[in-house]
Amino acid sequence: MTQLVLEQALNGLQFGLMLFLLAAGLTLVFGIMDCINLAHGSLYMVGAYFVAAAAQAADSFWLGLGAGIAGTAVLGLLLELSLFRQLYRRDHLSQVLATFALILIANESVRLIWGPAPLLLNPPAALSGPVEIAGFFYPAYRLVIIGVGLVVAALLYLLVAKSRVGMWVRAGASNREMTEALGINVRGLFTAVFVFGAALCALAGGLLGPLLAVQVGMGESVLILAFVVIIIGGIGSIRGALVGALIVGTVDTLGRALLPTLLRATLPADAAATLGPALASILIYLLMAAILFFKPQGLFPARA
Amino acid sequence: MAFYRPARWQNAAVIVSLAMLIALPELLTALDQSYYTGFATRVLIFALAASSLNLVLGFGGMVSLGHAAFFGVGAYVAAICYDAGIHEGLLVLPLAALFAGLFALLVGAISLRTRGVYFIMITLAFAQMTYYLFVSARAWGGDDGMPIYERMRFAGFSLLADEALYYLALGVLALCMLLFARLAGARFGRTVQAIRDNETRMEALGYPVFRYRLVCFALGGAVAGLAGALLANLTGMASPNLLQWTQSGTLLVMVIVGGVGYLWGGLVGAVVLLLLEEFLLAWFEHWHIVLGLLLIGIVLFAPRGVAALFGKRHG
């Protein structure tokens, strides 16, 4: 039992860190530019496809990862310059419509280019086996994901909390007009943040590619989770995104693994079989509703 | 923003359209195209669902990204009624509206405490919860959904013929549009629109803002439930797919394409979108790319939607 809990906790940590990569870009775009980007999940999907295609072409996972991230960043740049720049000043409704349209275009384009079947992305051969930690075996590749996630999270923290650019970004998130008035080029900053967010999407998509299937529609489910993360954490806050992502990742993973067992121990088998999966899949939404009820601005509001 | 006022030539347009819609099944049969009667019914049902969202979004100013939940609940009520041996539409439809409305009342009571982006997200979260509940509810078919092997009857009449269901959908849609038209001009509609335009002012004037919004939200949910029950009877199925968030997105797209806050916005949007789908799909398999580009074009160049031609807002 403890081994199961430990293993699932590691899985939860890994999932949470990947969610953080997605949520970090989303929360900044959302917080600074007040722009709802439903197409953030599509960047994740397109990123995963780019990585998978490049890895197949180069026959190397790491080369593919680098190329995929670069390609997605370029795509993000083009999108920001052509479309998103027009959207920042518009109301939320226009943003929802335009980015929903982007989802349709992205899904259909991917289907057009790569076909409806999922793409295969193999983890690097050296990492495909399990390693032994604390008396049980755990896939080496998942450990690498955790490591990369931790490193990126730390770098992002340093970048946002300690660097000058990060200071501008935080200033932009808490008061955009004032930041502009102080002579910061907020427009250029927007572009940089958006491109950076796109690159993080591709990193998450590429790293998760070997674990989940690289397929059309993979962006939508993860998008909703990323939104839940940034709502829980407080829109515009990197720290909130990290805490929210870890909470959502662990609660979701542990809930799915342990709730059915726990319910079976306390309820009649029939009720447990129905209630278990249902409760496990809505757990994070209940959590979000509860947090919003008590803290309507999330755990770490950026605009205090 | 200002109050909705119908265009002067609206009544004439409505009468002509209604006459054409009544004649449509006959015409299709005469042209040997009765396959399209079912399609036309689907258009009418989505027009109803989109109009109900337009009440919430356009008149109430509440950007809900979870409207499909109420649509889906209506569909499931119809299927559960069939399962329980209730085959009378005069009972099924009100039950669908009642349960969807009560559910919307519950969701609204919690969601309406938040504003802006948070409201969008919490309505989305509730819709996702509902989706997962139905997916995992094995008693109601789980993933596979719940079949309706035989359409309900209506006031004793059989709805087995596609034409019969078409006329029922047309009747329900006409009644609901009449209700919305009366509502838009009535005290309730005026108040809700004024709250949309300036919440603080209405609060200061002593209006119970929260309660007005909640009633508007619940009413929209109830009508969406009606549409869901009709759709389940048309397709013979209540499926969790109806509750997916992309379905909410599609309804939203219909309303925005048609024209937010214009009485006929939802209806026009549903007709335009479904016709585009039906005919572009035959021409180009990946028509979603075209649709997406079209939508971005609408956002950038025609933000007021198609139905802006059908009514004016006087400032």
Q: Any overview of this molecule?
A:
The complex is a heterodimer of chains A (304) and B (315). With 304 residues, chain A is mainly α. Chain A has helices spanning 2-33, 40-58, 61-87, 92-114, 140-162, 164-174, 176-181, 186-208, 218-233, 238-266, 269-294; strands spanning 130-133, 136-139. In chain A, helix 1 packs parallel to helix 5, helix 5 (140-162) crosses helix 6 and helix 9 crosses helix 10 (238-266). Chain A starts with a helix and ends in a 10-residue tail after the last helix. The mean pLDDT of chain A is 86. By secondary structure, chain B is mainly alpha-helical. Chain B has helices spanning 10-30, 35-59, 68-83, 89-111, 116-136, 162-185, 187-197, 199-204, 209-235, 245-258, 265-283, 287-301, and strands at 4-6, 146-147, 153-154, 157-158, 237-238, 311-313. In chain B, the strands form three sheets. Chain B has a two-stranded antiparallel sheet. The longest helix of chain B is centred in the C-terminal third of the chain and has 27 residues, at 209-235. Chain B starts with a strand and ends with a strand. The A-B interface holds A 30, 34, 36, 38, 83, 86-87, 90, 92-94, 96-98, 100-105, 107-109, 111-112, 220, 224, 227-228, 231, 235, 273-274, 277-278, 281-282, 285-286, 288-289, 292-293, 296 and B 57, 63, 65, 110, 113-114, 116-118, 120-122, 124-126, 128-129, 132-133, 135-139, 245-246, 249, 252-253, 256, 260, 286-289, 291-296, 298-300, 303.
